[in-house]
């Protein structure tokens, strides 16, 4: 029997939830723009190369699916996607945020990492441009006025994992979380 890795199922579930979120958001935004002959631009600022490609590429595919469905509807303006690659680098995310803020984009989906979102957030807030980072989990990203979280934040995940460790696994001690290349790794528990 062929078993798919659990993380693959999680990625597919996340993409479907993300596509639904974008579809609902677009359903709310599109009528506000009036005539069907107009078009609106949204930006996808994602990690499409570098260490974060495994986060950025599936997110981009989810966005493309949602836009394909939204543009198939005859009512409302055509939604145009402009894609930006932050190369999985925080300084590149900040630079791209400035470019997007000067563009006609009405919405930004991204960045892929919490640290990139923290770097880019001030430029989006200064331009009053909404940013929806699809895979960022830092509790701090919503300190930017126009950044909105669509996944669980780190503190919620930590609490959930702690409850699981105690109630399901019967464990009462965790050792350390180590920050390494933007990611937290559980060193040991038990």
What is the strand tally? 6
Shape: globular
Mean pLDDT: 81
Helix content: 40-55%
- Secondary-structure-based class equals alpha/beta
Radius of gyration: 18 Å
Query: Which sequence of strands runs across the widest sheet?
Result: 2-1-3-4
Termini gap: 32 Å
Biggest sheet overview = 4 strands, parallel
* Residues in β-strands, percent: 15-25%
DSSP helical segment count: 5
Uncertain stretches of 5 or more adjacent residues: 1-5, 185-190
Order of helices and strands: HEHEHEHEHEE
Q: What can you tell me about this protein's structure?
A:
This protein is an alpha/beta fold. Helix content is 44%, strand content 16%. It contains five helices and six strands. The protein has helices at 6-29, 53-72, 90-101, 114-126, 154-167, and strands at residues 39-46, 78-85, 105-109, 131-132, 177-180, 183-186. Strand 3, helix 4 (114-126) and strand 4 (131-132) form a beta-alpha-beta unit. Helix 1 (6-29) packs across helix 2 and helix 3 packs parallel to helix 4 (114-126). Residues 1-5 and 185-190 have low confidence and may be disordered.
